[in-house]
């Protein structure tokens, strides 16, 4: 929410032709405060949001109310103390999990890996060993524990709704060996029976597809005025897309890929057949 609100204020400032120093004057503050607000690094005070909107000439009906609503939601979420606060050091992963915990829906596209929310402990450990030195057992188990706890969002009274599109390569890549991979695929097939989970497989035979640029997650929220947030986690960096037009572009990309993928029913049968064909 903070990053999204900051982006909107940044856009309004640039449209008004003002720099951060000029914006800071109306807040009786330094330019650094405006910079931190626009990056979503600090909580938003209602008087500051109102003052900036007046300066920027933002007077569209409902716009200020929407911004103040986002500011309130952001303050409430900063006060929340989820398990990830003590389990993870500050960073992109902790920020992502905090957003995933309050999201209503997740749409995810995966090229080479089973989505984290669907991974078995054995599959997780195989991935962790590849990323962490094998002698750092505690670090490996910590990574497995964090991912396992994230999976709690798939259950309960208000479970996260997940729509995953997975390239066939992720089902065939032998991570952890045949036994672990067969177990992973069977677990995936069991999850596909859940009412809040839809999985589609994009088979090799579909040919060139729209989402060749890399995996991404689209998080959707229940709050009025909340724009979808797109998260892309790379080897050395994490990218967030929170503008309305940009997130809409990823939604369209996801929708096009769904259209060329197998149906959920056919994907389930496809996953079962791959699991059966795996030998020790």
TrEMBL record:
Listed CDD domains: HTH_XRE
Secretion signal, residue range per the UniProt entry: none
Domain DUF5753 span(s) in chain numbering: 93-270
Protein name from the UniProt record: Helix-turn-helix domain-containing protein
Species name: Streptomyces halstedii
């Amino acid at each position: 929410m903070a990053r999204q609100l900051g982006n909107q204020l940044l856009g309004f400032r640039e449209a008004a032709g003002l720099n951060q120093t000029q914006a800071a004057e109306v807040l009786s503050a330094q330019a650094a405060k405006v910079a931190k607000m626009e990056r979503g690094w600090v909580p938003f005070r209602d008087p500051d949001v109102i003052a900036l909107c007046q300066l920027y000439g933002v007077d569209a009906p409902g716009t200020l109310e929407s911004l103040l609503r986002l500011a309130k939601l952001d303050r409430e979420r900063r006060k929340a103390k989820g398990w990830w606060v003590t389990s993870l050091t500050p960073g992109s992963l902790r920020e992502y999990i905090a957003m995933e915990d309050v999201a209503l829906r997740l749409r995810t596209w995966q090229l080479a890996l089973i989505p984290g929310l669907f991974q078995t402990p054995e599959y997780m450990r195989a991935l962790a060993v590849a990323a962490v030195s094998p002698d750092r057992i505690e670090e490996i188990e910590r990574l497995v524990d964090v991912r396992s706890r994230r999976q709690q969002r798939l259950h309960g009274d208000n479970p996260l709704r997940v729509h995953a599109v997975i390239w066939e390569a992720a089902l065939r890549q032998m991570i952890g060996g045949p036994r672990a991979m067969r177990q992973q695929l069977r677990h995936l097939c069991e999850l596909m029976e859940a009412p809040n989970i839809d999985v589609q497989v994009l088979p090799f035979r579909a040919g060139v597809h729209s989402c060749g640029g890399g995996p991404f997650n689209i998080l959707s929220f229940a709050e009025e005025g909340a724009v979808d947030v797109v998260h892309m986690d790379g080897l050395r960096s994490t990218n967030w897309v929170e503008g309305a037009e940009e997130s809409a572009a990823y939604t369209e990309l996801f929708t096009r890929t769904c259209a060329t993928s197998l149906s959920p029913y056919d994907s389930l049968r496809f996953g079962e057949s791959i699991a059966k064909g795996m030998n020790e």
